[in-house]
Specification:
Two copies of one chain form a homodimer. Chain A is of the alpha+beta class. Chain A is built from five helices and three strands, in the order ααβααββα. Chain A starts with a helix and ends with a helix. Chain A binds a DNA duplex (30 and 30 nucleotides) through α4.
Chain lengths: 99, 99
Amino acid sequence: MYPCMQEILTSLSDPTRRAALAILWDGGEHCVCELMARLEASQSRMSRHMKVLREAGIVLDRRDAQWVRYRRNPDLAPEFASVIDAVLAAETRSERKVA
Amino acid sequence: MYPCMQEILTSLSDPTRRAALAILWDGGEHCVCELMARLEASQSRMSRHMKVLREAGIVLDRRDAQWVRYRRNPDLAPEFASVIDAVLAAETRSERKVA
DNA sequence: GATACATATGCGGTTTGGCGCATATGCGCC
DNA sequence: GGCGCATATGCGCCAAACCGCATATGTATC
């Protein structure tokens, strides 16, 4: 079965996961330890959040020596990608307003 | 404080609320009893879901005799409206695929 | 004021979600 | 094989979400 809207939205409903997506959405690869550091999240917490994103089909992971590199899933259905784009764009905007 | 992304996404994370939004998104007014009937939801359940949408600033309500008419909030910040549009568009699409 | 219909809400129960802690697993290096 | 770093996961705890049931509130009609 393909990812469903429910999974996508559940994934987006957590601020740490949205912050992780904002980082991954540049198209590059980022390991868990980098995300932990940048988001000030504990190791188990970060790992679990990434698992949710992976199982929703939003991101892909790849073993690279000790590290696991996460990246945006380029094959995510475009209608779902649009949702994520809209969410990240809106949140970037709000941050600007605050700043 | 204005509605925040967190509230919007929490609101969208429930399938009944998304279905209600799909109905309200035509711009018209719809009372709770109509939504109950069309979504096969109990009265208290429907009323509570609408409260969540109202408190998130997504919809407005209006007393009209015995009824309470809900409608889309036209003043919802456009960046949030875009998120909802994307979600509803994606879900309409998936339904078409299934059908 | 009594009745009927529409809606909201208090309450209690069950489920789901997020977290920390500890531990397991995978990998490289010596 | 032993050690160290990176990541995943089992477990228990706590908070939040959803629901049904019962009841309260608001409105119209008689």
